[in-house]
């Protein structure tokens, strides 16, 4: 792999995560609409946006193949439901002035994925990985005290996205094709809900302003564009690099919560987030050491991602994940966590 190709891949990956992070500022612009209405518009316009992209590229095989495969379709139906929950909770969290909880969710998502790897796939973890998980549990305990209650929105974001990663691990499908199937499955319920709002006179699509209408339509582009960049990046750079870039999103979300939305962050919350960051340092150092022990080229991405971030911010194709450079016993969880949002916005995309 040439240096120029690698540098281009890093630029594309950073651009994807930058867009996912900045999309955190997008959803509050739509606060005239409720979270469910925003989610429904995101589903509808994301499908139309992806359809245009697939038509432009003349590539429908992945989408049609998934629709003809009952097992794959069943798994993707579950993924569509889970990512809808993730997107909805994320939008509600940000638009209700609790962006720091969204950031916490995406910070701890890799640790939740590790636990899922142990429980579901019988993976064995190294000591450093167990230490990272233990620190993550401690952080949640500290932040439960700091928030005055269990941070349910953070846990919902983390567990829904980790579940999404598990389901996507079971399906080999390009990220855009996957997003197309998931939004197609949710299209009719979303459209029916929007038509109901319009009939009841409570929808905001045409009742607020032209800018509001355009922003709702733009939710499709906000969802699909970062995924395009991410897919191109995943073919050019090691997934270990993507695994590091993923932390751009929750870092940006935390900074937005602190500096833009002026959320209250007393010392107790800083201590809790500090424990989370310590867990992620342990996690990242262990990941890099594992990568260094693998043969050259084993950690290079070889395919496109499997799902969308925040819009998702982060899921990867199982084929790519298998070469994520997390080799060795008990690190296969990289397939479901090495590239955490969309769901931020997806992250998430969320």
TrEMBL record:
SUPFAM superfamilies: Multidrug resistance efflux transporter EmrE (SSF103481). It is found in: Cell membrane. Pfam families: EamA (PF00892). The keyword Membrane applies. Its main location: membrane. Keywords: Cell membrane, Membrane, Transmembrane, Transmembrane helix, Transport. InterPro entries: EamA_dom, EmrE-like, RarD. It is a multi-pass membrane protein. Residues 9-144, 153-283 form the EamA domain. The chain crosses the membrane at residues 9-27, 39-60, 72-92, 104-121, 128-146, 152-167, 179-198, 210-230, 242-261, 267-285. Residues 296-350 are annotated as: Disordered. Belongs to the EamA transporter family. This is EamA family transporter RarD. It comes from Nocardiopsis rhodophaea. The gene is rarD.
């Amino acid at each position: 792999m040439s240096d120029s190709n690698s540098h281009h891949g890093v630029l594309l990956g950073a651009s994807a995560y930058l867009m996912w992070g900045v999309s955190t500022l997008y959803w509050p612009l739509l606060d005239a609409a409720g979270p469910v209405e925003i989610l429904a518009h995101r589903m509808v316009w994301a499908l139309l946006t992806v359809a245009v992209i697939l038509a432009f590229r003349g590539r429908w095989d992945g989408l049609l193949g998934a629709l003809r495969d009952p097992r794959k379709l069943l798994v993707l139906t579950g993924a569509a439901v889970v990512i809808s929950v993730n997107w909805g909770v994320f939008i509600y969290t940000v638009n209700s002035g609790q962006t720091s909880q969204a950031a916490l969710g995406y910070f701890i998502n890799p640790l939740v994925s590790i636990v899922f790897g142990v429980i579901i796939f019988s993976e064995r973890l190294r000591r450093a990985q167990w230490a990272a998980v233990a620190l993550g549990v401690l952080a949640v305990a500290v932040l439960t005290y700091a928030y005055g209650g269990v941070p349910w929105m953070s846990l919902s974001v983390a567990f829904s996205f980790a579940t999404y990663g598990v389901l996507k691990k079971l399906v080999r499908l390009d990220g855009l094709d996957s997003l197309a199937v998931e939004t197609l499955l949710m299209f009719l319920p979303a459209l029916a809900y929007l038509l109901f709002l319009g009939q009841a006179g409570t929808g905001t699509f045409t009742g607020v302003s032209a800018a509001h209408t355009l922003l709702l339509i733009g939710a499709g582009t906000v969802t699909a564009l970062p995924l395009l960049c991410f897919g191109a990046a995943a073919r050019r750079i090691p997934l270990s690099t993507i695994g590091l870039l993923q932390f751009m999103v929750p870092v940006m979300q935390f900074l937005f919560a602190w500096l833009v939305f002026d959320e209250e962050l007393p010392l107790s919350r800083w201590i809790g987030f500090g424990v989370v960051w310590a867990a992620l340092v342990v996690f990242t150092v262990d990941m890099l050491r594992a990568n260094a022990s693998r043969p050259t080229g084993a950690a290079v991405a070889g395919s496109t991602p499997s799902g969308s971030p925040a819009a998702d911010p982060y899921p990867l194709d199982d084929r790519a994940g298998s070469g994520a450079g997390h080799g060795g016993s008990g690190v296969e969880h990289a397939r479901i966590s090495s590239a955490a949002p969309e769901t931020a916005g997806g992250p998430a995309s969320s």
